[in-house]
Amino acid sequence: MLRTHSALAHAAYHDLLRSLRDEGWRDLRGTPALIRRGARGYWYDSFRVGTQVRKRYLGEDSPDLAARMAALRDDRAPLEQRRRERARLVRLLRAEGFLGLDPTSGSLMAALSAAGVFRLGGTVVGTHAFRLYEGELNLALSLEQTAQTDDLDIASFERLSLALEDAAAPPVQQVLADFDFAPVPSLEPGRAWRWRQTQGNALVEFLTPAFGEEGLRDLPALGVQAQTLHHLNYLIADPIPAAIPYRSGVLVQIPRPERFAIHKLIVADRRRADDRLKSAKDRAQAAFLIAALARDRPEDLAEAHEDALSRGPRWRDRIAASLARMPDTAALLAGL
């Protein structure tokens, strides 16, 4: 059975998300400037430091972004008042049963957000992203579904990272070092895509889509290396913002839920034989989201499913292999 939060909690979540998104565009130091690269446009805060003109990335061009900037010019509420209001919304969400984060994970997410990781294209994937669909889809998760992994996976497009001409500040490696994370040696000397906490089991991994052979690639905007993976380009295309109900809220970015669900079907079949528990978890998350989306967003789910099937026989085979073990989920997709 799919359980939902109250209408009040759903409204509070979207108020929190709206406030966090607005806050990210309040601290303009100069004049917003639109720069086009090919068919896409990108907004920057353009300002002078001495004789140099510097740019801070704000987001991809859209009517929504332009309208929000116009509205912010008329909003004079002081910073502390806005922070207190967001903290009130977080308390309301926690009282309504929304998931939170432990202090260590919450502080790390807040520090990465403040450094610009998600503003610069970083997208939270994996179980941390799954937990955040609670707010996006207004779903109350069960005790079994709320088990929190110690791994934090962040994915980004290499080409976007190169194109932005902006960088996280402070650097991501410094943020991780402040939380006692050290790079895990890789097969390429001097390059690392995984960072492990020296006291504990927490692990942060950076990923990027593979267009060819899998290996390590640089993400200049984040100042780290990332492991390339096939099928990841499908997952992190057109990500959405999400709010973590921690302290006065933390703004991050996650994949679209319909893409996450279909991608989990692919990943479940890709796992090695000794990863049966993880494969079962992948299928459970996919089944849960597909059930919710088939009920509330069937058009989005159908489009994501058709997109994945159109990408070739290997994609179709992996999806079919997972669905063969999930007859109820297969029936939902077939009925869209």
UniProtKB/TrEMBL annotation:
Pfam families attached to this UniProt entry: NTP_transf_8
Nucleotidyltransferase-like domain span: 105-309
Protein name: Nucleotidyltransferase-like domain-containing protein
Species, as recorded: Paracoccus hibiscisoli
Lineage: Bacteria, Pseudomonadati, Pseudomonadota, Alphaproteobacteria, Rhodobacterales
